Amino acid sequence: MKLRYVKNAVLFADLSEEEQKKVSERMRLVRYREGQTIFEKGDTSDVLYLVKSGWVKVITAESTVLASMGPGSLLGEADMFMGRPRSTGALAATNVSLWALSDQNLEKLIAEKPKIGVKLSLAFGSRIVQLNYYLVEKSLKGIPAFADLSEEELLAIATRLTVEEHRRGDVIYCSEESAEALYIIESGRVKLIPATSGDGDEISFVELDAGAIFGEMGVLTGRPHAESAQAITDLTLWALSRKDFWEITGEYPAIRVALSARLRAHLSPDDQAIALEHLKGVPLFADLPRDALQGISKRLLLRHVPKDELVYAEGTPGNALYIIESGQVRIVSDAEGEREVFAHLQAGDFFGEMALLTGKSRSSAARAETNTNLWMLYRSDFDELLVQYPAISLALSRTLSERLAQADQRFVERHLRRMSLLVGLSSKQLEDVSARLRPVKYRSGEVILTEGTPGDVMYLIEWGRVEVLSRTDGSSRILAVLGEGDFFGEMALLTGNPRSATVRAVTDVDLLALYQPDFDELVLKYPTLAVTLGRVLSQRLSRADEYLTGELVATGVRVAPAQAWPRPGREAGSVTAVARTVRPRVRRAPRLLPGPAIQQGLENTAAWFAVRSVGAKLRLVSVFLLFVWLCGISAPATVISALPSNSLGEGALAFLQTPTATPTLTPTSLPTPTATLVPTATPIPPTPTPQPIAIIPTDTPTPLPPTETPTPAPPTNTPVPAVPTDTPTPEPPTPTPAPAYDFVLAEGTPRRLGPCENEGGHHILINVVDAQGNGLPGIKLEVTWAGGSAEIETGRKPEKGLGFVDFPMYHGTYSVRVLGARSQVAEGITVDIDRNETCPDSGNVQANSLYHWSYEVIFQRTY
Question: What residues are paired with 240 via a beta bridge?
Answer without folding.
Answer: 182
